[in-house]
Amino acid sequence: MFQVLVAEDEVWIRDAIAEMIDRLAPQFNVVGEVGSGEEAWNFIQEHWPSIVVTDIMMPHRNGLWLSEQIHRMSLPIVTMIVSGYDNFQYAKQAMRYGITEYLLKPLEEEELHDALKRSVQKLEGMAELHEGVHKIQHFIDRLPDMDRQTLNAEVQALLAYIYRLKSGAPGARKSQLALLSAKWNEMFRAVDQEHTFLPFTEEDEQGVRKYFADLADAWLLRYPQFANQSVKASIKKVCDYINVHYFENFSLTRLADMSHLSVSYFSTLFKKTTGQTCLNYINGVRIQKAKELLHEPDLKIYEIADMVGYTSLPYFNRMFKQIVAVTPIEYRKRLGL
């Protein structure tokens, strides 16, 4: 199964694209829907989808900016541009970022399906690299937990995996090493404002291993222990806020600001504290509240969706089925209502 992120600020278009993709299940599955380039980039950094279908014109960073970030970091993600602007300049810029699928609105379902199917071979060729980014994310998520012995062992195991990569993509190994370096330095900056980013420029394996050994030593020397109660308290404060204000429009940036943490550090600590990503936690709380409201026969399903924070009924239905395994209508029938 290939996981798809849809980035589009117009809700009805986003719903339509997601529903088109869902009709190709189980091969393709929509795992996220966002309304801005910034939200899309934050989602990618946590969930690492296989495909991003993005509009060009969006608030808070547009689709070309998002495509450039994916291309600059050589991420194993297929990006598809959807645009209402029949403008060759956009297409030309998109091609510079390695994008071959440039789809015009109004989007035809057959055209989107064909583009997704054309991407399968490329996606299969990226499978090993995609597994690599998940291993890197898992390593970063566990950084606050590791003592010296564990950290050194994990670093060596991760480097061994990267050096065993068989992918024929140019610079595949170097891009994975650079991603590990970037995300680790980003975490470092989050916990130590004085940290100077250590640029990754090494070419030979010995130099690479020394670079990451030095980074590990510096991390162990400076990282404040996760047992710090103020950090735990800040995550609990956010959880308590979500539990009460679940109907509000959340963004990862806003919640991280509430904790006075960077987005990357907040995401890592939130996952460590709760056992799930922030987005999954929010959806879990909302759907639980929706299940309670579905016991009220006088409430329409679209009213319940709005009451728990979903402005889009189709998106609510998809999230509900994803979490509960049945649709809201089916859930109500099982209650005998």
Automatic annotation (TrEMBL):
Listed Pfam families: HTH_18 (PF12833), Response_reg (PF00072)
Keywords, in A-Z order: DNA-binding, Phosphoprotein, Transcription, Transcription regulation
Gene3D superfamilies: 3.40.50.2300, Homeodomain-like
GO annotation (BP), single: phosphorelay signal transduction system
Keyword DNA-binding in record: yes
Domain HTH araC/xylS-type: 236-334
4-aspartylphosphate found at: D55
Residue span, Response regulatory domain: 3-120
GO molecular function, one term: DNA-binding transcription factor activity
Name listed for the protein in its UniProt record: Response regulator
Organism (species): Paenibacillus thalictri
